[in-house]
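hi! just following up on the protien thing from before. the input was this:
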Amino acid sequence: MPPSAKLADGARTGRSASTREEILTAIRRWNDLFGEPPCTADWNPSVARWRAQEWRIERYAAGDPDTGARWPSLNAVKRRFDGSFDAAVREAGLVPRRPGPRRRAPGTARPDVPPREPLPPVALDDALRAAHALVAAADARAAEAERRAEDALRRARAERARADREQARAAASRLRARRLADRARRAIEARDRARERELRVVAAARAACEDRLAAARADADQRIAEARAREHAASRRADRAEGGAARLVAATGDPTAPAGPAVLAAALTRLARARAAGGAPGDLRGALREVSLAASRWAQRL
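and the predicted 3d structure came back as:
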């Protein structure tokens, strides 16, 4: 933590908004007044107090003895010169002072400030106890820091394990989603194939039904045509038979002769007897003629 540019009473010194040129001018003015360029303790009271050089604080707080202007602060100089106080001194055309105490030539004037009072002697046992207390406190702080580090390490490992589990679960979820997607895709493909097969079966069945219907229609048409032909032939035969019977009745010249089922049955009986007796062809022809006449007369009487 950089030293604060505040005085003992808490008032801030310097001008944090100083420009580079103002800072370079202040460095040259300081060198002209005090015979040397400023150092970090000159423009930072905290550093001067830490070094037990309170006279630097008084000189810094007094400002320019001629104009009363305040001197820039250490932090202001570092902000303007990339964090380097020595770089500002060099840019002002001066040589920065080397760190550490300087040897002064004999008779060189020193600041007119009273020296510090010597500290009272400290007993060795008190010093040892204080040292042991400091060591114990340091050990306690080290143990606490180690415990915190171990806790942080355990938490980091737990977080890493949790992250690994989350990553594993995410990978498993992605794998399950991929498998479900593959399963759904296969189901859709199987459904499409089944639908295609069903469509093919329906088309084949429809074609077969249409073929069977056409064959049935053709067969029915053929049968109807054959039935009509047979009906026409039977009609023609009936007409021919009716015409023959009429001609036969006309040939017999006896329209008042008996007719009916009894006459026809008697004629058939005589035909059966002639066949059973093994009669001559002339007898069979006569029996057949009687059957024909009986049938013709009955047909005419209907």
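Residues 19 and 80 are 7 Å apart (CA to CA).
The radius of gyration is 72 Å.
cheers
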